[in-house]
Request: fold
Amino acid sequence: MDPAVEQRLRSAYAAFVAGDVDAAVAGIHPDAELVNPPDAIETGTRHGREELRATFRRLHDEFEFESLDVLEMFEGPSGVVVVSHWVGRGRRSGAPLEAMLTHVFELNDGLVVTYRWFRSIAEGRAAAGL
Reply:
């Protein structure tokens, strides 16, 4: 994997958990797609960097993120796979949040053009062509 791509993605995760949504979406193509699975809080596809920015802001409105650890990052024929561990809590409920998520990023000219996420590593690997 290109070390610059890896560093850019790791920086975006760090920015997200720190609440810096603008920095988190800096490497997103203006016309990118975010594809949420059917069981997500907000299902369906979001189009464009601005919709992704708004989605990230809503997540921060709903949840307080304590940590986000990138456990694995590797490249497949159809995208970069990131396996991550998230810890936080609901802002209103105080309910704990802990999740393992797998993201698949398709890139073009160094920018994310498609961002899909999955609840299992197997789903993410399959989506990346592995």
The domain at 3-127 is CATH 3.10.450.50 (Nuclear Transport Factor 2; Chain: A,).
